[in-house]
Amino acid sequence: MENKKEMRKWLDDMNLGHPLVVAGPCSAETEEQVLKIAHELKDTDVSYYRAGIWKPRTRPGNFEGVGAIGLKWLQKVKEETGLKTATEVANRAHVDLALEHDVDLLWIGARSTVSPFIVQEIADALEGTDKIVLVKNPVNPDLSLWLGAVERLHSANIEKLGVIHRGFSTYEKTKYRNIPEWQLAIELQTRFPDLPIINDPSHITGKRDMIFDVSQTALDLNFDGLMIETHYDPDNAWSDAAQQVTPKKLVQIMKDLRIRKETDEEAEYKNSLSNLRAQIDVLDNQLIDLLGKRMKVSDGIGELKKQKNVAVLQSNRWNAILGNMILEGEQRGLSEEFILKMFKAIHQESINHQEKIINA
């Protein structure tokens, strides 16, 4: 896919002066609910009102959306508030109905992005459209699959394109519902700086009290906007209750976010510096996470050594690790002195963990 500046023309033409905000309920539940939330959002930074009409659920039996009737409610939103509308589409039938009801922004969900067949079907149905089409990252951290979906849409002569970063599924227990894997989004931006990228902190966090922090990280990493699920009564929402915020809370989040603008050389320098520092913060958090996992493995080794009455320090093993890490470090531009200091500290912490277990 060529890196074309016109891909972000639709966003630049909006001339917002603030990040793009797409907000609204996870699911359209009733006409009253849809219109009430829309009216609470109409005089805010929200440009697009989102609502899930068809809800792909992991297992059957849960609420799977109201269906096409919800599109009529979105039409009323546009008529009564002036807000543009947005919804997810997962097949040709969804696309046809959304276009028939003049939905302004369509997005392809994470479960659909994993299937080139589904993406191609949607691309064929949308060929040549002037609607905005955004692609959520696939559920698995596969940058090629994500970009492949964008390429299929671009090949269908769809010019108003962008992506949504909503995090990635994992079997591990973390503080996130879907781990952000920020480095994938950073790589995407590096390769295609003119492809608009929107962050979805609702699906990344799964918890409303974490939405501000993830949103701030996204803006520090030069994301173009946010998609935040919003409900006037989040605790009683029919789907994803824990991750939705009230319209009042959304307004406060947007006020509190630090938004850095490029207006001159000094501002550009500060913005670039903030972006690089945000990348370092992401990597530092990953380092801490990896070190925590390493020490859990050390705890397991300590348990085994205790059972077999084996000494904590195994010099041959330690010397072999150190030699390998020095060689690996050299290939990555890291000095031997740095590698020695770092791995000696890690080794000592590992010994401390094992001794606690053995001496318990």
Automatic annotation (TrEMBL):
Positions of the Chorismate mutase domain: 267-358
GO MF: chorismate mutase activity; transferase activity
The entry's keywords: Coiled coil, Transferase
Signal peptide range in chain numbering: none
Residue ranges the record marks as coiled coil: 259-293
Keyword RNA-binding among record annotations: no
Electron transport is among the record's keywords: no
Alphabetical list of Pfam families matching this protein: CM_2 (PF01817), DAHP_synth_1 (PF00793)
Gene Ontology biological-process entries: chorismate metabolic process
Superkingdom of the organism of origin: Bacteria
EC identifiers of the protein: 5.4.99.5
Protein name: chorismate mutase
Organism: Allomuricauda ruestringensis (strain DSM 13258 / CIP 107369 / LMG 19739 / B1) (Muricauda ruestringensis)
